[in-house]
Amino acid sequence: MNSRPRRPQGKPRYRRPNPDPVRKLAYDALRAVDERDAYANLVLPALLRDAERGGDGFDRRDAALATELVYGTLRRQGTYDAIIAACVDRPLGEVDPPVLDVLSLGAHQLLGTRIPPHAAVSATVELARAVVGDGRSRFVNAVLRKIAADDLDGWLDRVAPPYDDDPEDHLAVVHSHPRWVVSALWDALGGGRDGIEELLEADNERPEVTLVARPGRCGTAELAAEVGEDGVPGRWSPYAIRLADGGDPAALEAVRDGAAGVQDEGSQLVALALANAPLDGPDRRWLDGCAGPGGKAALLAALAAERGAGLVAAEKQPHRARLVARALAGNPGPYQVITADGTRPAWPEGTFDRVLMDVPCTGLGALRRRPEARWRRRPEDVAGFGPLQRELLRTALRSVRVGGVVGYATCSPHPAETRAVVDDVLRSSSEAAELIDARPLLPGVPDLGAGPDIQLWPHLHGTDAMYLALLRRTR
Ligand SMILES: C[S@@+](CC[C@H](N)C(=O)[O-])C[C@H]1O[C@@H](n2cnc3c(N)ncnc32)[C@H](O)[C@@H]1O
């Protein structure tokens, strides 16, 4: 006779949760970003490496899906928060952060991917059982079923205020940016409806991986040949090769040995414009005053070497100065990397012929790369960077010789970090300077603005929104 105890009728047997490893990894990355202020672009590769080494069959397709889930969820968080808020009966601030992360991950699968709704809901509820418990997984299930009842456009019609009632709030919800960032980018574009929606949407796209073939070390054609059929020539920089299908730059020998690097075309153009600025007299000593991690320094040093000039690359943070040294290793011409505070120059006044000051900034022009950055930045950060940006530009003017050229660059288009800084310094610096028209120095690049400074844009140029003003010291 079978003496095994029988389960009471009607009570389902407890089943241990068995979350899918891709969702679990994506959730772990989101928690790290939320809880420890981790950067997704640092935490995710580490988690992916561990998963791929783990021997559970986690493959490249799993890694691609996990990456899409993490980046997509973070980028679209503003939109998903508005939708989730419409589906729960308490303020979002009262929902436990881990539960909110699970809900956002589910919302992204339902509204931002082609994953079939039933699979999105069941995989996310299974994840919820594992990470927040059975009780709260029922809440997750109920909310996700409400979200699944409509598509993204339907939800946006319901949760975003009409454009005509409140344009900034409308754009903030529809394109998932904080309202103050919408407002700042709009000002930077010059107002009007033109371009703002394209720009906000471009911030939500995955940026292409672009390589730079450092002149004198690697020819662009040579780099293209090594990349193979995935390589597409750059749009603007003669040294750029774009990796159409993403690809793994670290697998390329030219990248491993430093002859090429990963660098957005906007950054390449900034270095090129400074190097192309006309100069009377000697052109031997170049300075990059804010060099870490060294992308622009490596291109500048290679361009300098072609002309028999040398580069000093200064960086305040020792660990970033080490990255600069790594980026410059193997440069064919003379260079020096120093750990130094650019506001207290370790060199005599008027030492350099060309100076780049690529100053610390809010990074509002590189939101495509740092999906969480838009939610971390605060309006007061803009003013916070102002004094250092002005001081570094003043130091740059002091460091360049009379007749020499300074490039003031930011990866933010915010007017308070760009023109306002340049105008203030031009008015108040004891070294006199004049602006040079930077636009003709980048022949063939359209839509650079009204000059004399230039502003690149993700939606117009496919680059980060880099800003560059070129100033010639006149006295
Ligand atoms: C926008 S990043 C420069 C990016 C770099 N040009 C590149 O292309 O790789 C600004 C750098 O300035 C450094 N920095 C901040 N304050 C500085 C100072 N007072 N003097 C020198 N460098 C400073 C930061 O540590 C950071 O590495």
From TrEMBL:
**Keyword Ligase among UniProt keywords:** no
Could you say which residues bind S-adenosyl-L-methionine here?
C290, A291, G292, P293, G294, G295, K296, E315, D341, D358
Q: Name one Pfam family in it.
A: NusB
Q: Which InterPro entries match?
A: MeTrfase_RsmB-F_NOP2_cat, MeTrfase_RsmB-F_NOP2_dom, NusB-like_sf, NusB_RsmB_TIM44, RCMT, RsmB/NOL1/NOP2-like_CS, SAM-dependent_MTases_sf
In terms of superkingdom, the source organism counts as Bacteria
According to the UniProt record, where is the region Disordered? 1-21
The protein's name is Transcription antitermination factor NusB
Q: Give the organism, scientific name.
A: Streptantibioticus ferralitis
